[in-house]
Every structure is written in structure tokens, then in C-alpha cells.
Records
---
Amino acid sequence: MAQPKNYGFEEEAGMLKDGARRFFAQKLPVDQLHALVADAYVPERAPEVKWRKDLWDEMVALGWTALAVPESAGGVGLPWVAVAALIEESGRAAFPSPLLSTLQTTAVLAACEEAGESALDAIAQGCAATIAVMDASGSPTPGAVQVIDGKLQGTACFVQDAGKCDQLLVLAMDGDEPALFWVASSADGVEIQQDAIIDLTRDQARVSFTQVAAERIAVDAATAWDAALPAMWILSSADMVGAAEWLLQTTVEYAQQRKQFDRPLGFFQAVKHDLVNVMIAIDESKSLLYSAACALDHEPERARELAHMVKASASDTAAFASGRTVQMHGGIGFTWECYVHLYFKRQKHSQLLWGDAAWHRSQLAALLIDRPGIGEAA
């Protein structure tokens, strides 16, 4: 089935995107964000979880946690292009919340179909959730947590928003088979140790499980996990695209206001050309983003291919836009007082999370080479 016109981006998705932009701009503008998460500039500061729980409650009341939950599980069941638009605005605001993690968790649970409906219903009601799977090397292959005598044992690393979430979706190994478990973050035997990371708008942790009794989701975990990965990569890309748009817009405004040699910076061709190059990179990534999100809705057989493409493109765009923004801001661009550093650090974190550009290109190459008609015949 071919993709529909305009990626299937209907009026409802546009209204959601516009409403989200107004919400973030009004509730936590960048000056308030900086005061919230960047109040201490001491490098040796202890890691903290800084966010506005009251604003998260408002987001829940708006129904945002239910958007990707299928209607059969009590959710709204919006197309993925609409969900991607919401995350794009969240990235534009560098908003500290568990929204991205919760929607990525939703993607895995939705792939579990009926077996995941109980957990999906909890998310639709406002439960914040995140995924625990990676080992110390950052590999998303299960094995960091084991099932021993029916209980969870081990340590999952790089768990996003662990300090904000009520539930953990744990991908563990039960003998030779992967298994999914739905675990309360406050359960006996669960210990959350916050990591010190450069991204001030997020928190990340190591989550240790010591003989934790957990609810097992009765599903083929390997199949569900594999089916959900494209959506997870696409949503991470949406966050980077939104943040890159903020960096470009902010730099354009600065170039119009800051004067050098009695002329605005934007007058000089060297500045104009760099800004245009950033715009082109963002447009490329954004086009791939909505094509990939649309594939989740209409061309699932192409979703993985397009998801690899957009994660690679968005990671490169994140790095390029961040570097040019700091450079264009000149001497103030790398200071703590300049808001740019919040986005620079968020983008650096996002570039590597769930695979960097090089990894996704290698996966895409393998996928295309193995395809019948390219390389050896199947």
C-alpha cells in the first residue's frame, strides 16, 4: 500500500502539533527551563532529576499518554505521524518529561497486542513508563537482566527518565529466550542509581534488580521487540528534528540582532550560507521523519528501512545544527548563560541513544544488500 498524500498528516495531527507548541511555550519557556535545570554550573554536582511534575499531570489530562495506545486498549490510537509531531514539539522545547520514553514503551506494548493491553491501559490513564534492556556497552540486545527462579536479577544501564517513571518495561533473558516484564519502579528489589550525564533536560540511570517478582507479559518477546524498534528510532529522531529547528530559529534571530562592522551578522554571506545549509539538513531529516512515521501507519514493510534512514539523518543534523549554532553565537555561544548549551547537550545525548548515525547506516546497508534483487538473489 502506497503512502497517502502529505504523509497522512491530517487536520487532527496539525491541531495537536500547534497545541503542543503553545503549551510548551507558555508553560516552560526557555528562560524558565534554564532556571529549572541549569541553576548549578558546578561540574562536580550530583545528578538530579529536575522536572515539573505538575506540568506532566497537565499533559496527562490533555490525553497525550493515550495518543499511541490502540483504541482496543482504551487509548486514542492516533496515527504515528501525529505522535511524531508531538515529540517534535517536545524536542523543540527541550522539555524535561517522560513523554518520549512513555511513547516508546507504548510502541513495544502495542506490538504485544492483547497481551499488552493491561499495561497499555495504565499508560492511557497517565502512567509514565520507560524501557530497561541495555547492558553496560549500550547494546539493546537482552541479557543485562536474567530470569532466575522466576525472578529478575541483574542491572539494566542507560535507562531513560527512570527517575520520573512509575513503571519499567524490562526485556530480560529467561534461559535462551527473551521475555518482557512489567515492573513498578518502586517494587521491592528495584534500585535506581542516577547517572551523571551532560544532558540537563533528561535523567538516565542504572536500574538494578535483586530477586524482583514481576508480571510477565505472555507474548513472543523477541518478535514484539523487533517490531517496535522502528517506532522507537523514529520518535527519537522526531525529538532531534524539533531541537534542531529551535537551534536554527534562535540562530537566525541572533544573526538579525547582533551587529558586526555596523551590519547585522546575517548580512554576511558566510553566515547566510551556513544557516541555509542547516535549514536544508533539517528539511531532509524532517522529510524522512514523516515518511518513516507514515510507513508505520501505511507501509509497515518499509518502516525499518526508513527508520534507519531517519535516525542516521537526524543524528547528523543534530550534530551539524548544534555546531553551527555555537559557532554563529561567537564568544557567548559556549557560555553557561547562553541557552544554546541546553540543546547542544540534549542533541549529543540523542545522537547516540538507540544507535548513532554510523550504526544505522550499517544496518540499512545490510538490509538493502540482503533484499532480493540487490546483491545475491534470495
---
Amino acid sequence: MIITDNHMHLYNHLRLKALKEFKEAGGTHVFLVSLLCHHYEVVPKSGKDFSAVFDEHIRLVERANDIVKTYAVLSVHPAEITVLGSRYGVEKAAEIMKEALEVAGKYVAEGKAVAIKSGRPHYEVSEKVWKLSNEVLMHAFEIAKDVDCAIQLHTESYNREGMEEIAKMAEKAGLKKERVIKHFSPPLVKDFEEIGIFPSVIASGNNVLEAASQGDRFFVETDYIDDRNRPGAVLGPKTVPKKVKELISKYGEDIAYKICVENIEKIYGIELEL
């Protein structure tokens, strides 16, 4: 049986041991997402410098594949506009981020990664930063369209208006809305189906069961960060296998297969194998 965690990080705590825990709990497939540049001690002067981040992440994914089937998602985190903006100014930061997304797109086109990640700040920012962030996000959608890949998004907390705005941006870029994945989603499966973008439900509490009560159009994730200063945050690596097994006990294996295999294959355009 395939059990997929759609969004996980490995950083400076358990590292690959986290995936061993995931496997021992029944997990089989995982999407590993790269972190911000400072997590790799990279200070980019241009978007091309993100190659050092992406290369290190891909090497990690290659090692992780010895444990479970692992896919690379290359991130230009929306918070970079704040981090890099403090050094270069926000206009320059946005330029660096756009170029970095182009680099990420090339890696996807070369088969080194299966998706990119972008978004917009989840915290309060100035109107100028918000405008620039949306320009970066629009550029990310255009790249995903050009290289024909899915895109995970880190955004503000769910609100209908915001998600509809994002869906319209994707449409404008010519990207299928369903290939836009809202990372850290609440279990509002029906709402997301109406909006068109795809929810990756955070597997806390009863979220997975609540999502399943509304349909099967979703992924599940832990957003495990692997930070030694916050062990177990956001959710531990065993969480998704545990929650998927709870799902099976209540709704049967068909829905688990739908969310962990069929949805993944359709949205990412890949074929899962055990």
C-alpha cells in the first residue's frame, strides 16, 4: 500500500532518520521541499546562486531514495523577499526570486525535480511588498506553465477571496488551476474544488477524516520541518501514515489510494511505484 506525505522538509535534526520513522510507520512516498537559502548558509547575490541550494537538496533527495521513494520540490520561499530584502532592498529581492524560479524551472525540465514552490507572505507586509510578492508568484505560475509542472504554494491562511485571487492568477498565466497546490490547507475540500486549486491538507487533529467526509480531492502532509529547535514541528514524520490508516479504518482503502496515488499521479504528472 502506498502512503504519501505531500510536503516535508529535512534540515538539522533527525535528517534521514525522519524518513526511517516515516517508513516504519507505513509511509512509502514523500515530497521533500527545499528550505530558505539561509538554511543552507547560502547568501545569494542573484537567482543563479540558488543553484547551490537546489543542488544540495537534490543530493539529499538522492540519499533519501534509499529509504523511501522521494521526489524533489524546489522552493523559492515567499519569505525570501523579507530576508533578502533586508540586505538588498525588496525590489532587488523580487528580481533575485524571479531568476531563482527560472533556475528551478530548468531543474524540473531536466528531470531533477518534479515541482516548484512559490507563494506570498503569510505574515503582514507593506503594500509594496505584497505587490512585488504577487509579481513573483505570477512569474512562478508562468514558469510552471512553461515547464508543465505542478506548483506548491506557501501563502496566507485560507480565505475564500485570497484563494480565488490566486486561482485567477494561475488562469491568467495559462496554468491549470488544479496544478496549483495549496500547502498547509484546512480540510475544506468542497471549497477548494469550487475554486479549482488543489488542497494539501495538514494532517493534524481530525483534518484528514474531515476532508474525507467532503470528498477525495486532496493530498495529506505533515510539513515536518526537522528543526532541532522545534522537534516534531509542524507534525512528526509518523503522522501521515497514522492518519491514513485511520482513514482506511473508517472509509476503506479506495479513498486512501485516491489521495495517495491517483491524485498525486494526476496533479504531478508522475507514476508512483512501490
---
Amino acid sequence: MRLRYLTAGESHGRALVGILEGLPSGLSIEVASIHADLKRRKLGYGRGSRQKMEDDSVQILSGIRQGYTLGSPVALMIENKDWKNWTGIMQPEPLSTSAEPPVPQRKLEVPRPGHADYLGGIKYRHDDMRNVLERASARETTIRVALGNLARRFLEELNIQIVSRVVQIGPIEDTAVVPAAQLPNLNKIVDLHQLRVYTKSVDIEMITLMDEAKRRGETLGGIFEVIALNLPLGLGSYVHWDRRLEGDIAQAFMSLNAIKGVEIGLGFELGKIFGSEAHDEYFPSKQHARVTQTTNRSGGIDGGMTTGQPLVVRSAMKPLATLMTPLNSVKVSTDQIEKAHVERSDVSAVPAAAVIGESLLALVLANAILDKFGGDSLPEIKARVLAWNQSP
């Protein structure tokens, strides 16, 4: 593992912190670029009020000097603006028993079905499941998007681009196939639509469904697609189970809150068709010694390695566990049936999950590049990738 990262912080704590180790030296970093991705994470019809409250302004603490990476670990911090309303509740210092007035605790005793509340409380022996909620919250993905932007910048220097779109919200699906010529501009196209779908008419249908869900106090899940373009052939490996690239991709996407399924290429559809319909045939290339393929059913990975075609990842996100019309649950201290805890939440976060997915894929692919090509500085790595891409 050449590239690794850690995050820390709670949803209503003082700040979110992230450390990324392994970036080469000489990579140009602009705070404005990180902020642009953080702003895109807030996109999507049906997001909650927290998105308006937080400006998600990132501070660079280490690893970058005068706009360029040093090769040492990069540390980032994003302060939670809502901390001012939660200081007493989330303070790290012991509470004073003589506090006047007493500090409200916002104790969570009735877990939400489908959330980490109950199991985390049992595992870590918390009688207040807010100790679980605060770290299990999707707010943590804010700092992962910031770290992912650093990986994205590295990939951009190698002409590798990552885009995404929403393909389904609830039962409504956008079945349009994006023309290959439009893929590099896909983010610019879908970011103009409220649910980040490619087809405007489908976007309108989804908004109507979201409004209905909000009226009913419901939440909605969906499916999103993340695509990487211009990847070198041969990232990953077949020689050991833990070096197959799709394994790293699946782990990264399944680590995202509420994700319950990941597929690459045709994915689960491949289990329904004949072999002649499932595989991508080889044809000779007149312009390059390597063969070509006219289809991409494998989604850009065969045998654990990239094929050089677009890498296509789809993920299924379940409806969020916080319902405004809450489900039945149990108050753990009394063992009595009560309605589940209600925390500020979204109707759907699928558009945001797609943007987060871009960052997760960027982190995986940046590590795969470093694993294959090595090197400590950006010029060194760029030269090696260029030589590989031009070799027979």
C-alpha cells in the first residue's frame, strides 16, 4: 500500500481531520479545487438543512508548501460550524456537575433500524448511542472528499479523469447511454440537474418522487455510476487475491455509508446471459501493437487488471435510516417499544454519494498507479506512465 489515509472527527464535534500519506512531491494543489469538490458533495435535491449551515472550508495543516506537495504526509482540517451549538454536548472535557443551567445531553436511547446505533452501542458498551451516531454519521465523508481531491489532482496530471452520475432514485431509472464523446464533460452536464442524472426529463420525475417521499416522512435510495477515463492498462494484478483491483474498489465503495451493493461493468447482469454476450472480443489495432475491444461489458477490468477502457463502477445505496415518520424501535434502558430516534437528515443522499464515490475511486486508483509505477516525485512518475502507455 503506497497511499493510505486516516480520518478523525465527529458529526457535531469541533472539526474533521484527515491525513493522506504517499503523495509524490511536486504536485500542484489549490485550495479552491478542494472547495469545488466539497461544494459538489452538497448537490442534490432533498438534502437537509445541515448542508446550508456548513461552509466546509478546508485548512491545510501540513505536507504542502507554497502550492506544492512535499512528499510528506498531508494533513487537512474542516471545522464544523455547528460545533458552536453543540459545544457543551460534545466537549471532550468532563461535565461540571454544578453547571448552571445544566448542559442538555441530547442522549440517544432509541436506536434507528438500519443504522449503526444499536450494534455500535452494544459493541462499545455505550449507554448513550450518540457516541455511535456522531462517528457513524455520513458527515465524515466530507473530509474523505477533501483527501480524494488530492488523489484526483495526481490522476489529472496523468490525464486520468473521474466522472459520475445518478442512474436511479427509488423505482425511477435513467436508462440513457451517455455517448463516449460526452463522458469527459459528464460532471458539467449532470451537475446542472438537481439529482445529477443525465436526462433532464428523468430529473423532473425524480423530483416529484422526492417531494412525495418528503410529505410522507420517507427516505429514498438509488444507484449511482462512477467512471474513470484514460487509465493505463495493467493496474492491479492477478497473482494474489488481495492485488485484484476490483477488490480494492469494492472495499472502498462498501465503506461508504448506506452502500449495499457494488458492481463493475454489466455486474449482476452478467449472471443472466450467455458467455458470447458477456465478454469483450479482441481485435487487431492498426495504430498500436496492443489489441482493441469494441465493447466494454467487463467495465474496464479483467482478471483483476485494468484493460485501458473506461472503468465503470455502480453502487446501490439504501434509503437513509433516519425517517421523519420514524419506524418502531425499543428504548434500550426500559425494553419498551418507542418510535426510533429522529436526527436531522436528508430525504436522499444519492447525488452526494456519487460525488463521494469519485473521491473514493480516485484514492484507490492513485494507489494503484503508485503501486505499479513507483517513484517519489511527480516528474519521475509521469515519465514512467508515459513510457508504459507508449510501449508495445
